[in-house]
Amino acid sequence: MARARSVYTCTECGGQAPKWQGQCPHCEAWNTLVETAAEAAKGAGGNRFAGLAGGGEVVALAEVEAKDFPRMPTLLQEFDRVLGGGLVEGGVVLIGGDPGIGKSTLLLQAAARLAEQAPVLYVSGEESAQQVALRARRLEVNAAKVRLLPEIELERIQAALATHRPRVAVIDSIQTLYSSALTSAPGSVAQVRECAAQLTRVAKQSGTAMIFIGHVTKEGALAGPRVLEHMVDTVLYFEGDTHTSFRLIRAFKNRFGAVNEMGVFAMTERGLREVTNPSALFLSHHRADVPGSCVMVTQEGTRPLLVELQALVDETHGGQPRRLTVGLEQNRLAMLLAVLHRHAGLALFDQDVFVNAVGGVRIVEPGADLAVTLAIVSSLRNRALPAKHVVFGEVGLAGEVRPVQRGQERLREAAKLGFTHAIVPAANRPRQRVEGIEVVAVERLSDAVDYAAR
Ligand code: TYD
Ligand code: MG
């Protein structure tokens, strides 16, 4: 069989060039050209991307029947939560995460449950059939109905998909596949892109829901071309501190659901166990009140979550003061320190500041600002914050404390876990009293700092 001709495609703009060069001739980006298979001649093979969204006639939007996507729940509640209720027919999910975090474990558990309802094909490119079987035994899942294919060649996988017509296919992992139409090595950008594009096309045409497992780079982004994220319908990240047993799964992009949902699992001896009530997971239980610790209520999708934030302020010895965050945004810390200086009169230019979110959780919402600032103030003064207090609120550059979403729910959750006071933005003051919790509403950062110093 003659090899298909190669062309070089830009990962930024998609422009093509006949041979490799350092700069894309179309968008002038550097080092973005990668080898791809040339499109098959028109007529014979048609458009390789045909069927991605289904070609069709021009119609008035009003005439299109808007029906809900039929969902296929994986019956792992926490997984379904991030998927938006389950897998969608023909939908493609990409799930990324560090090696050893538990991606294969999660997908094998999900596959076993799905196989009870519909035909499932598990393509294992990383592990042999024996290894997968061993894992299934360890997990004590009923994997009898899961069809397994240890294979890395795209063309054979396509053939298996065509013969077995599964409702769900798991690809573990997309980086191990290669297409014999390309000359580059498995795992190269060109191969990953080509295999993902081909499989996505199969998913759209056959209605098979596909889940790709993807590796991440050292920086934590999915390895391979950015176009991968555009190609698929849903991008999930599986994360967690490998030193603790908790694993979080989050949606980064979801054409079929919300992106701020989070699923929580615990890794046990027998696989992943769902944690359906994680709100108190990220609290460390100090025996006495300690300086530099502040409990915040964050909102993950539809669920409030209590997280302890810790700050350590220490004199700088020579050189630039250090600003370090774990689980929070570094730039945001620099900004909060400037606000603290200008609007609360606390100077930290000769102090190192370290901030940590307990339990390996990552907080992206600005609603953490007030808690971060109070933890810093508490460490600076070496005085614990008043006991049984929770905090939330965004801090603005003018020193104002801005409201967050779903304040009422956050208060209720805090009350449920035995907190008696909450320092919250004035605009989040509840209209009706929340049973069991005293609300301290603040308008400015300085009000909160003064209150904490009482
Ligand atoms: P795995 O699913 O192979 O990770 P990934 O596919 O993301 O690379 O999980 C590997 C880790 O999980 C491994 O270090 C062992 C641990 N593990 C358990 O603790 N309990 C179990 O039941 C299983 C199957 C794995
Ligand atoms: Mg694996």
Descriptive report:
This protein folds into three domains: 6-37; 73-276, P-loop containing nucleotide triphosphate hydrolases (Rossmann fold, 3-Layer(aba) Sandwich), CATH 3.40.50.300; 293-452, Ribosomal Protein S5, domain 2. It is built from ten helices and 23 strands. It has helices at residues 77-83, 103-115, 129-139, 154-164, 189-206, 227-231, 330-344, 369-381, 407-416, 445-452; strands at residues 6-10, 16-17, 33-37, 71-72, 87-88, 92-97, 120-124, 146-150, 168-172, 209-215, 234-239, 246-254, 262-268, 271-274, 293-300, 303-315, 323-326, 351-357, 389-391, 394-395, 401-402, 421-425, 438-442. The strands form five sheets. The chain has a nine-stranded mixed β-sheet with strand order 8-7-9-10-6-11-12-13-14, sandwiched between helices. A seven-stranded mixed β-sheet has the order 17-18-16-15-19-22-23. It has a three-stranded antiparallel β-sheet with strand order 2-1-3. The radius of gyration is 26 Å and the shape is globular. The termini are far apart. Mean pLDDT is 88; it is low at 41-51. The structure holds thymidine-5'-diphosphate (TYD) and magnesium ion (MG). Magnesium ion (MG) binds at residues 103-104, 126, 172.
